[in-house]
Predict the 3D structure of the following.
Amino acid sequence: MIEQHKVKTFFTAPTAIRAIKRDDYTGEYLRKHDLSGLESLFLAGERTDSDTYNWARDLLKKPVIDHWWQTESGWPMCGNFMGLQYFPAKPGSTTKPMPGYDVKILDASGQELTSGENGFVVVKLPLPPGCFPTLWQDDKRFMESYMDSYPGYYLTGDNGYIDDDGYVWIMGRTDDIINVAGHRLSTGGMEEVLANHPDVAECAVIGVADDLKGQAPVGVCVLKAGVERNEREIVEEVIKMVREQVGPIASFKKTVIVKRLPKTRSGKILRSTMRKIADVEEYAVPSTIEDVAVLDEITEALRSLG
């Protein structure tokens, strides 16, 4: 479609790019088409890991714009300002807040954190035009869910940090912060490490219940097409990578390799559903799931870990 209709900007989820990377890592199919008219690729919907970002940029030879927004905002809250001012990209970062958004990072007590410190991503009020003013026929839930936790701020439900250059790093949903023996750790940071393994196409890290540590991280990986190495060796390698790059404090000891991850039709990985499967909790099959059969595959794989 890009070739036929001379598409200038293409918007998709990182999962779609990871799927292409898995099956066409060298860009064999890409070279069969004329994409000279494409000016930029926009990624959103979930966090874009650095490996996927670099792969798409190097293969397309075009700017890759990793931007962040929510249904509630109606338009991007952070991104690179194509058409206004393009900033040097930092793979893994959504670049800077869009005009109208005063993004801050707060700790659990509501105090603003300094650069580099991970916490709750909020937007200082007032919100700019285009954002939701309430929830349909439920003003009370609107206040309780988004405004009451930190008066004067809109609670996004995401966690992350802002670096010294003002770049915003969204590390995942606050539900994806796990507590390992009293230490709050981001599963997004661990996913970043797993995604950098040369044989891993896409991955997810979930926090599962642990009698000793409260929670423990478990990795779920999909390998690139054509990888024929011993899976046990790959598992040992990714565990070692997390231990070296995140630290022993993460207690990352279990990883399972699967053929595919459960996703919505828009490409979001169903991490909370996998977490409930691992903890043997009841769960409702999301109405937006792409293929319900994958849940049985995930259940079998996670149970194999004990």
